[in-house]
Amino acid sequence: MVILKFGGTSVGSAERMKALVNLISSDEKKIVVLSAMSGTTNKLVDICKALFNKQHQIANDYINALESLYLKEVDALYSKEEFKTKGIDLIKNHFNHLRSFTLDMFTSNEEKAILAQGELLSTALFYFHLQEIGMTAALIPALNFMRIDENEEPQLAYIENNLNLELAKYPTTTIFITQGYICRNAFGEIDNLKRGGSDYTASIIGAAIRAKEVQIWTDIDGMHNNDPRIVNKTHAIYQLSFDEAAELAYFGAKILHPTCILPAQKRNIPVLLKNTMQPDALGTVISNSHSEEGIKAVAAKDGICAINIKSDRMLLAHGFLRAVFDIFERYKTSIDMITTSEIAVSLTIDNDTHLKEITKELEEFANVEVEKEQTIICIVGNLPKNKAGYGFKVLEAIKDIPLRMVSYGGSSNNISVLVDSTQKKEALMALNKGLFGY
Ligand code: ADP
Ligand code: ASP
Ligand code: MG
């Protein structure tokens, strides 16, 4: 079994959906995971915001505008009247369901139910297309098997059991279609795997059924050496280790959801990144095979908050760091980067929901300074600790940029620096020049 995940642009129009048929028509058994059509989830977020603010007219306008975008695709997607009618009925049902929310009190459960509509629509529309062209496939609802626990972790055993039950309903079928991103939570309510989560769905499914391979099909020919949205010249990397890919995904390479590598890595399932517009391009293979030595890529993660904790009591004291970490743990706030000196420790967080409470508790035994709008720039590769020169190369490339923190040696895959977000573009450009010669 292989898993193929197609992202928003890959299902972004009738034309793009039709172009997927060639990519899924081999005899191999496969589960095809689809995202919502591109732009849909953003629009659903806007609808939720309007409902939350009780702007019912605005919400209705957004719903009508999105519905007409979908209705426009019907003629291009289907040729037979029967399927056009099926498509229109499906779209109307989903949008009438969205309209029903505008009359009620708006809760977070309802928000999740609204955000799920994009993937429910794209998978059903694509499934009808396969039916129309006579391709046998089964549509299996992710909400019947994809589940997270109280800590928002996927429940792999539950997923494995329930997914296998779904697959067993169609013993002779080779193509299974399902929704990315959406799931149920520990209370059985509709929930999701966070924005960009369809990649995560694909690797969780791959791990659950021990697939041969997980393929992530998107609009670029693999993981590039730098963020192509920010710097002009970049190149695809043909091969990455799981650890290298996980660092890049976690530290901002948008092509992969931050946590999507882990499930595949745990069960040693290769992840292939491919381009739907250029299916013959090699793409990137992520696996546990030997990774060539050297710096391979850089990525940047915004929205970082740096916290500097300074105390004379740290001098020669043991237990200081434990006291600090204990506070972060109690507020379920994870720390990304950390640097220490004799009297101070600086660390970064990307979730400042509990910043006020954390700062208040830290201030009971230390002076605390907080700097927001910071960016972690992460330099990734196979950088053996016994080899000289990598740290120098990185720092030389960004010698003109003020560095707030530097982290080296945590793993042999990563050198991270923290810069003010206003310096991010310059830093990525300087690294592109200094490390990759562009
Ligand atoms: P999808 O909708 O298919 O999930 P995404 O938009 O989530 O696609 O991810 C693909 C995009 O990720 C690319 O179009 C590219 O702009 C962006 N991206 C950011 N960093 C990288 C990188 N290092 N390598 C490749 N793509 C990247
Ligand atoms: N549709 C969801 C989003 O836009 C999930 C995904 O595309 O991966 O975030
Ligand atoms: Mg994505």
Structure overview:
The chain has helices at 14-24, 40-52, 56-77, 81-101, 108-115, 117-132, 156-168, 198-208, 242-250, 261-266, 320-330, 355-362, 390-397, 424-436, and strands at 2-6, 30-34, 138-139, 175-179, 182-184, 190-192, 213-218, 239-241, 271-275, 284-287, 294-310, 335-340, 344-349, 367-382, 405-408, 414-420. The protein has 438 residues and is an alpha/beta fold. It has two domains: 2-219, Carbamate kinase; 296-436, VC0802-like (2-Layer Sandwich). It has an eight-stranded mixed β-sheet, with helices on both faces. It has a six-stranded antiparallel β-sheet with strand order 12-13-11-14-16-15. Strand 9 and strand 10 (284-287) form a beta hairpin. The protein binds adenosine-5'-diphosphate (ADP), aspartic acid and magnesium ion. Adenosine-5'-diphosphate binds next to loops.
* Ligands present: adenosine-5'-diphosphate, aspartic acid, magnesium ion
CATH superfamily of the largest domain: Acetylglutamate kinase-like
Radius of gyration: 24 Å
Distance between the termini: 40 Å
- How would a textbook summarize the main sheet? 8 strands, mixed
In short:
The chain has 438 residues and is of the alpha/beta class. It contains 14 helices and 16 strands.
Quick tags:
438 residues; Carbamate kinase; 2 domains; VC0802-like; globular; 22% strand; alpha/beta; eight-stranded mixed sheet; binds aspartic acid; binds magnesium ion; binds adenosine-5'-diphosphate
